[in-house]
Design brief:
CATH topology: Rossmann fold
Shape: globular
CATH class: Alpha Beta
Strand order of the largest sheet: 1-2-3-5-4-6-7-8-9
Largest sheet: 9 strands, mixed
Number of domains: 1
Number of strands: 9
Number of helices: 12
Order of helices and strands: EEEEHEHEHEHHHHHHEHEHH
Helix content: 25-40%
Mean pLDDT: 91
Radius of gyration: 18 Å
């Protein structure tokens, strides 16, 4: 396993069985309770850095991997949502972590759900923040930007369009800040206010551009996977699960949070009034403290 130390992170690349490489970073307290963080779309392991300081404070060890074809991770032919828990299981074994929590944000939500479903004996708690639900369900896209609704329909019916969409996402990231395009891509006032901060823009830009380090096939594959059969029913998840959504989110419909809440037995849905897609940043303390309190529960 190779390693590169950064200012606030330890970046590593491990080789999986079969020779495929998986990149990941660690944040927070290296001796803390383990939490696997699954990035959104298009994003990378670097997005976990926003939890570094808070992770140290709460004594959480945050492991943030790149999905196949993102960042430092090799592309995986024939990848499905159900392939991801296998990678996480191997990664956890290498890190000598037996049990852990998972947290998926936005496009990472389906991967957190898949991991909770497939690894119920290892995942002690799951969290989904503004996570995508199956995009083809009736009315599930209601309330989202019309352009996003059109995109999800297109990726399902004409899958090859996911590649130019990924290329467009990189171009928007490179040049969008100059054109102030975040005001067009995020509908909630709370999101626009946060993104008016040049420091936040810079962090998001670096994180997003890293997603395309290995090319466009990995991000494009994600778009197709979100829009086709996931290979499992969230109704079969038996891991304690928390859900967080903003009711003014135009990127991921609040109906998706309600879908998970209805499907996952015993799950808890928290809705933030008047807030949008970036609650993983604005309510980071609320979200991460949930995992601390779970670990502190008596057996």
């Amino acid at each position: 396993m190779s390693q590169e130390n950064g200012k606030h992170r330890a970046v590593r690349v491990m080789t999986l069985p079969g020779g495929r490489r998986l990149g990941f970073a660690e944040y927070g307290d290296p001796k803390g309770k383990p939490l696997f963080y699954f990035h959104g779309w298009p994003s990378s392991r670097l997005s976990g850095e926003k939890y570094d300081v808070l992770g140290k404070k709460l004594r959480l060890r945050i492991v943030s991997p790149d999905r196949p074809g993102f960042g430092l991770s090799d592309y995986q032919e024939g990848r499905t949502l159900m392939s991801w828990p296998e990678d996480i299981s191997v990664l956890a074994d290498v890190l000598k972590i037996q049990k852990f929590s998972v947290l998926g944000v936005s496009g990472g939500g389906p991967y957190a759900a898949a991991t909770a479903y497939k690894l119920p004996k290892r995942v002690v708690k799951a969290g989904i923040v503004v996570g995508l639900a199956p995009t083809w369900l009736p009315h599930i896209l209601d309330g989202m930007f019309p352009a996003f609704i059109f995109g999800w329909i297109l990726y399902r019916t004409v899958p090859w369009t996911s590649l130019p969409a990924s290329i467009g996402a990189k171009l928007q990231t490179q040049f969008g800040s100059v054109l102030n395009m975040h005001h067009l891509l995020f509908g909630a006032k709370s999101d626009k206010k946060l993104l008016d901060d040049p420091r936040v823009q810079a962090v998001l830009r670096r994180d997003t551009l890293e997603a395309f380090r290995s090319g466009f096939r990995g991000p494009a594959r994600d778009l197709v996977l979100y829009t086709h059969d996931w290979g499992f029913d969230p109704n079969d998840i038996r891991v304690p699960t928390n859900l967080w959504y903003g009711d003014d989110d135009k990127n991921v419909s609040i109906l998706m949070g309600k879908y998970y809440a209805k499907k996952i037995q015993g799950s808890k849905l928290t809705v933030y009034p008047g807030e949008g897609h970036l609650i993983s940043r604005t309510h980071a303390n609320d979200i991460l403290k949930t995992f601390v309190s779970w670990y502190e529960r008596p057996d």
